[in-house]
Amino acid sequence: MIASNLLLIVGVLTTILFTVLSLVLVNRIEEVHRLQGALKKIKRSFDDLDEQAKLIVKTDLELNKAQDELDKRLKSLDALQKTSRLISTTLDENEIFRRLDQSLMIDLGFEKNLVLVHDEDKILHGRVNLGFSPEEIHFVLTNLEKNKSLKQAMEEGHTFSSVNSARHEREAIVRLFDVEHFVLTPILTQNGIIGILLVGNRSNAAAVTEGDEELVSVLANQIGQSLENARLFEQVYRSSQILESKIQDRTRQLASLLEEVKHISRTKSEFISAVSHELRTPLTSIKGYAAILITGKLGSIPDPVKERLEKINTHSDNLVKLINNLLDIARIESGRVEMKMEKCDIASMIESVRDLLTPQMREKNIQWQTEVDKNVPELVLDKHQIERVFINLVGNAIKFTPEKGTICIRVHRDTETATMEVSDSGIGIPKEDLNKLFDEFYRVDNEINQNVKGTGLGLSLVKKIVEAHKGKVWVTSELNKGTTFYFTLPLSP
Amino acid sequence: MSTHIGIGFSRHIDSQQAAKEAAFQSKTNLGADRIDTTLVLSTVHYDPRVSVPIIREILNNAKMIGCSTAGIILSQSIETRGIAVLTITSEDMKFGAGCVENIHTLDTSQSGVELASNCLGDFGKHGRQIFVFFVDSHLKNVSPLLRSLQEVLGSIFPVVGAGSCDDFHFGDSFQIFQDKILKNAAAGLIMGGHMQVGVGARHGWRPLGKPRLIDKADRNIIKSIDGKRACHIYEEYLGEETKDLRSNRLGQMAILYPLGISIEGGKEYLLRNAVDIEQDGSIVCQGDISQGAEVHLMIGNKDSCKQAAFEAAQEAHQNLLGKAPKLIIILESMTRLKLLSRTAFQEVIKIKEVFGLNVPIIGMYANGEICPLQSSERFKKPHLQNESIVILAIS
Predict the structure, then answer these.
(1) Is the dihedral angle over the CA atoms A347, A351, A352, A354 positive or is it negative?
(2) How far apart are CA A99 and CA A86, in angstroms?
(3) What is the CATH number of domain A339-490?
(4) Which of B236, B249, B251 lies at the smallest CB-CB distance from A54?
């Protein structure tokens, strides 16, 4: 009984335990299912997270690539701007290449670069070089000449790059320059291609971009422009040097000629002076003896002899006058005549000249007019010499003015000078003679001069005297209407 | 006697002229006749066979180490072309320089021992404060070298270093020791004496996507991740075929998206650049990888970089224990230069916010940085890092 009861109790307990365990197990299984669900969710979240991460990495890669490109662009633009400034501020071709060398190497960031430029005979030479040995440059120069199509395309202004060029072109350039990534562009001026610029990298890590291509083209243009400016400047400079050299040669020649002329003139003056002195002494004796003979103190002389003696006397006077004029000119030229400068009222001097020449004017019934500007002050001059100027000019005027003509003397004041005019209503002077009028011994070929004797030294003497007073003399004339001589004298010495 | 610091820099196009200008400028700024040690950083645009002898001659053949770099960090600018020369003269500080050559062919653990022994031999019996070294970044696994270095040097002071590099072409780089221009070598400098050193390092990269498991790795080579060929991770994320990745683009792309290894108990991730992908799809990293570790693809941005620079500077500053800094040396990943690009100098501005405007700064962009991972580890173990900025403040 007890045993059966015990068995019953055990059975009940076992059933209860089994039930409880079953409940717990079910509960655990549910928990496991729940956890498995949660784990799946977490795994899915991780996978989602990972997908997002991949997206982030891809975006980040693109951003980094864009940033790299942007940085490179900015750096290159900065380099370009700096390079442009550097090379545009010099007009020396060698200096352009020197500056280009530094700036390209430092800032453009390409492993290799090469600038080849034509010389005057259109032969290419390496002027800027980074990363090429002399042998490599020689190889490039030799083989570039052989590659006609590439050369032709370059001459037409075509730019090549590893980004955009056709495969066969790209391969040819890679073989030629040994760069995997490159931009090859012509350096152009208005007169066509003058060289080529190559930049490039061997490493795949530094491939060039379309931006590089544009940039290098701009740089090549800038180089071309700077070289053209330098060459134009060189041409202008050379021309100016040649011109300057020619001017210097001519100046030297002229100076030498001037010295020669001065020397001749001096020699001439000295000769005239010496000869005149030598002539004057015997002439004075001739004149003296002729005068004594004319007086008859040495015995009466027949009229024909007297007439001949008077002619000797008259010609002697003319000869003395000629010699005196020559002597004066020679003295003034050589500076041996010292002007005796003193204050002088020009109006009074003109009146004095008028008095002196009135008899001759009366003979031809010539009318005299004087117009003196009251503002002309007293002038500082050599009275005797300026009087000779007036006498010479008025004397000429009387000579060439027909009867009942007019002679007018005008004086007016300018800023720094007083200008004197002696005009007549005479026969005038042909234009072609005006320039030679003041030359020594020059006489205008006209009827009056043929009949009236003269030395041809009067106007020359006038010129010398006026110039010795720091003045100028000139003449205007109109045939059959009259002539006006002008001369100036400074208001203050 | 106070410590004198002189920094000179030139970006002259000619190697000879640039070396002359940088060395003279450094000597002038140093303001002392004696020069105790010299650090030379040069971009690969300059021929070190020309520049180094000139610098040596101008600086009286003072102890010299240096290397090539992708860029130079200065107080006033970031330069991607130029030569920088740091000179130090001090009665308080002591220096010991050394190098090891042929590290690719030597047993790497042996090369660490040799480098440390050479430096210690030159250093003498002074209190050691820090070891700085430059190593050829073509060395595929730096970790054994680091372990052996520490075996000789001990673990009570920090070891920092940088991988020499070129201008993002991932080609040849060089190391400088005295008048030697080396490849496949490491040159180091122990500094010690009465000085205080503060080191701070951060990277600022963040994990991206789901965590993955490195289920098979051998030293610095990851064989498989999540049961697939290791390279699959890059194929998936970068959308590139392995053959394309294996070309030059791997270096360009992978530096922006390194692998981040979770470190047990640490907040930071240890970053590893993929330097190569082998034929079987294995990823070759610059340092050791632990099998079974969790790995993420990592991503950085400009803000996180600048923040990391600021935090690294703060950490270095704190480690100076209140001393005023006399010189800041920055060893920074070239990836950061690529990422920050024109804004790279903003990191320097952030660093100046911590140390002040007038502290002289010199630094380099490297391919692989070596530093203690966290300051809390108290310099126990130097790690190779990628994408990081290591700031060394010397007082």
Answers:
(1) positive
(2) 6
(3) 3.30.565.10
(4) B236
Does one domain contain both B292 and B327?
A: no
What is the topology classification, in CATH, of domain A81-239?
Beta-Lactamase (3.30.450)
- Phi then psi dihedrals of residue A389, to 5 deg: -60, -50
Chain B touched by A235 (CB under 8 Å): no
Q: Quick one: DSSP state of residue A416?
A: S
Q: Does A340 contact B at CB distance below 8 Å? A: no
Q: Are B27 and B115 found together in one domain?
A: yes
- Inspect the interface and report whether the beta carbons of A54 and B252 lie closer than 8 Å: no
Q: Give the relative orientation of helices A210-295 and A93-103 as an angle to the nearest 10 degrees.
A: 160
**What percentage of chain B's residues is helix, strand, coil (to nearest 5)?**
30, 35, 35
pTM above 0.80, yes or no: no
B283 with B350, same domain: the answer is no
Q: Digits of tens for pLDDT over chain A (493 positions)?
A: 777 888 888 888 889 989 999 999 999 999 999 999 999 998 888 888 888 888 898 898 888 888 877 887 888 788 888 888 888 888 888 888 888 776 565 677 787 888 999 888 888 888 888 778 888 889 988 888 888 888 888 888 889 998 888 888 888 888 888 888 899 999 988 888 889 999 888 766 567 888 888 888 888 888 888 888 888 888 898 899 999 999 999 999 999 999 998 888 777 777 777 777 777 777 888 888 888 888 888 788 888 888 888 888 887 887 777 777 777 777 777 666 777 889 999 999 999 999 988 988 998 899 999 999 988 999 999 998 899 899 999 988 998 898 999 999 999 999 889 999 999 998 888 888 888 888 877 777 777 766 666 667 788 889 989 998 999 999 999 988 999 999 999 998 6
Yes or no, beta carbons of A49 and B210 under 8 Å apart:
yes
Domain C-terminal end among B299, B326, B356: B299
Max alpha carbon distance in chain B (Å)?
A: 63
Let me know: does B269 contact B263? Beta carbons within 8 Å.
yes
Are residues B319 and B276 part of one domain?
no
In terms of domains, do B188 and B50 share one?
Answer: yes
> Does B237 touch chain A if contact means CB atoms closer than 8 Å?
yes
Measured CA to CA, the distance from residue A89 to residue A95 in angstroms comes to 10
Q: Is B205 part of the contact surface with chain A (CB cutoff 8 Å)?
A: no
Q: Does residue A16 sit at the B interface (CB-CB below 8 Å)?
A: no
Instruction: For chain B, say whether A59 makes contact (Cβ under 8 Å).
Output: no
CB contacts < 8 Å between A and B, how many? 55
Contact B249 A205 (CB under 8 A): yes
In chain B, positions 238-277, which contact chain A (CB-CB < 8 Å)?
Answer: 238-239, 247-249, 251-253, 256-257
Helix A210-295 / helix A303-334 crossing angle, nearest 10 deg: 150
- Domain residues for the domain of B343 are 4-202+305-394
Domain ranges of chain A: 81-239, 339-490
- Is residue A195 within a helix (H) or strand (E), and if so which, with residue range? strand A192-201
B248 and A203 within 8 Å at the Cβ level: the answer is yes
Are residues B214 and B155 both part of a single domain? no
Residues B55, B131: one domain? yes
Task: Tell me which chain A residue has its CA closest to the CA of residue B248.
Answer: A205
For A441, phi and psi rounded to 5 degrees? 65, 10
Considering its fold, how many domains does chain B have in total?
Answer: 2
**Distance of residue A171 Cα from the nearest chain B Cα, in angstroms:** 21
Q: Quick one: tokens of A92?
A: 């020396």
Chain B neighbors of A67, CB-CB under 8 A: 341
Question: How far apart (Å, rounded) are the C-alpha atoms in residues A192 and A190?
Answer: 6
Helices (H), A147-188: 148-155, 167-177
* Shared-domain flag, residues B41 and B126: yes
Measured CA to CA, the distance from residue A363 to residue A368 in angstroms comes to 13
- Final residue in a domain of this structure, among B266, B282, B299: B299
Under 8 Å between Cβ of B329 and B392: yes
Q: Which two tokens stand for residue A34?
A: 């729940």
